[in-house]
Amino acid sequence: MGSAALHGGAPAALLARAVERFEPDPDLRVARLSYEFLRPVPLGRLDLEIETLRPGRRVQLVGASLRADGIEVCRVTGLRIARTPAELGSMSIVRSSSWRAPDTLTTTPFRLGRATGESFASTGVEMRFARGGIDAGPAAVWIRLVRPIVDAEDPSPLMRLAAAADFGNGVAWELDFRRFVFINPDLVIALWREPAAEWVLLDACTRADPAAGATAFSGLYDADGQLGVAAQSLLVAGRRDPPD
């Protein structure tokens, strides 16, 4: 759908909102979000459906999907589990971050591939690189939403994290995007701690094996340190209209 299709970060954030708001329980937390991007998500009306897939007091599964003109375009399965007891002090706890804070870095305009004009990547988020940059290779970048996902509503920290997590393959690209596409038909986010801030850092890299496949991995951080990981399976293919 070209420019009429949304970047995956926007529907990811919208579905994260649905999961955390659906029959909330203060004793449970969102531990995993597993997305399937089934078709390009159009820039237009979307209908949301959500249901309980597995009820439970300690483990729950919630399923939500987005439809355009009756056709499912994106879905998520949210895993909600009981919080870990506070008295388990012997567990490894990460409470600090060695990355430079975003307020000490400068904003880098980001353009994905050959896209021009306004897009979610260029106008929906702000990026500040702590390592690497827009060139090929691993990178660490702070990302924050600068527009609401739902009008007149401040995005929750989980929504902000979901939007940022879908940028891993874009900021840590390894192939020439003028000749190849490397899109992610899925996104899996696993969290051991709940996000609590507007800035999210991705420490991202891409791993590939010729004639096999590729995956993008991202460590997820906030100002207090790492809180989770993300992975994206990548569909790699040559472009139909590469430059001469």
What do these coordinates show?
By secondary structure, this protein is mainly beta. It has one domain (2-83, 99-238): Porin. Helix content is 13%, strand content 40%. It has four helices and eleven strands. Strands 1, 2, 3, 4, 5, 6, 7, 8, 9, 10 and 11 form an eleven-stranded antiparallel sheet that branches. A hairpin with a 2-residue loop joins strand 3 and strand 4 (71-82). Helix 1 (9-21) packs antiparallel against helix 3. The model has no long low-confidence stretch (mean pLDDT 89).
Topology diagram in text:
Blueprint: H1 9-21, E1 28-37, E2 47-54, E3 59-68, E4 71-82, H2 120-124, E5 125-131, E6 139-145, H3 157-165, H4 168-171, E7 180-183, E8 186-191, E9 200-209, E10 213-222, E11 225-238
Antiparallel strand pairs: 1-4, 1-8, 2-3, 3-4, 5-6, 6-9, 7-11, 8-11, 9-10, 10-11
Helix pairs in contact: 1-3
